[in-house]
Specification:
Strand content: under 5%
Number of strands: 0
Radius of gyration: 21 Å
Length: 105
């Protein structure tokens, strides 16, 4: 009986349960960023360059929130997933740079 209890306690110490609190906070932040993005575009009097900068900034924040809280990239043991995402982003950036270089040259 004590072996089962120690096995259960060992399992619980490795995998802690976060609960819904952090997910609700991340969801609220995602909704706020989405509403702010729509409001920025809907306000037509704002400078177009400023609108693009704000939208890109909110998109980057949204990516970090999604990866950190929904995909659990903030936890340990996700090195290869993070490496794959960074490699894919690097390849996509290279493709965009090469396409622009090809068109403009």
């Amino acid at each position: 009986m004590s072996d089962q209890q120690s096995a259960v306690q060992g399992h619980q110490s490795r995998h802690r349960h976060e609960g819904p609190r952090k997910h609700i906070i991340a969801f609220v932040f995602s909704i706020i960023l989405t509403v702010l993005a729509f409001a920025t575009v809907a306000a037509g009097e704002i400078n177009q360059t400023f609108t693009y900068i704000v939208l890109i900034g909110m998109a980057i924040a949204q990516v970090f929130i999604q990866m950190g809280f929904w995909m659990h990239m903030k936890d340990r043991g996700h090195f290869f997933a993070i490496l794959g995402i960074l490699t894919g982003g690097f390849v996509a950036l290279l493709c965009v740079i090469m396409a622009l270089y090809w068109v403009w040259w």
